[in-house]
Amino acid sequence: MITDFIKSFHLFNDLFVALYIFLFPKKYDLIYVIYIFLISLHWVIFKNECIISYFEKKSLNKNYVLGSLPYELPHNKDITNSFHFYINTLKFFNIFMVIYRSFDNKSIVTLAILSVIIRIILSSKD
């Protein structure tokens, strides 16, 4: 039961991040990039692991140790690889579209670029 809730919450979060540009006007871009930056930053703090995935893994295995299997994503077992790829592509598209439409706001551009850099650095550690 709790695992289903966590999976649903994680999927909702992924969809929000992926579809933001289509759902919200420019005036919310700063809040969005702060959210994205905090997501990227928490991956650093939690040993390259998403905190939502950590709680999902912990609910499935009480002995799970943070960071031991950072790329095993239980919620992804319920979705296809092509859907996951599409969602991740949309996430990056969103970041670049937010940078484009808010290019005059240095705070938004800086946080968005820092978020992308953090994700690239974390991805290259594999």
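Next protein, fold it too.
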Amino acid sequence: MTPQAAIGPFATAIPVSYAIGITIMLAALVAVLALLGYFIRDLKKGMIQKDQEHDKAIIQIGRDFNEFRVHCAETFVQRDDYVRSQITLEAMITDQGRFVRSIARDLNQWIGEKKASDAS
């Protein structure tokens, strides 16, 4: 049996230098693919780590926001109470002013009538 019969009737053997060249190119291709796989895996680990950090940050922001909502409600209720009490105080002062003015008017009328009766 001839060497050609083992490969096939139409196949011809390639020179050894071509076989070595193809082997080197395939080895280089495998090395490049392995490096790409390593870098992609490293990139994926970094992305997973960043995702975990972002998840923790989002949870912390949620906690901070909930705490803010609790304190915000207290602050605005107190502020509303303060405004309401100020309006009440202003209304009371206005009523007292009206009362004092009415007393002053009545006194002026009474004093005016007394002066008029004293003059006659």
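About the second fold: Residues 47 and 96 are 71 Å apart (CA to CA).
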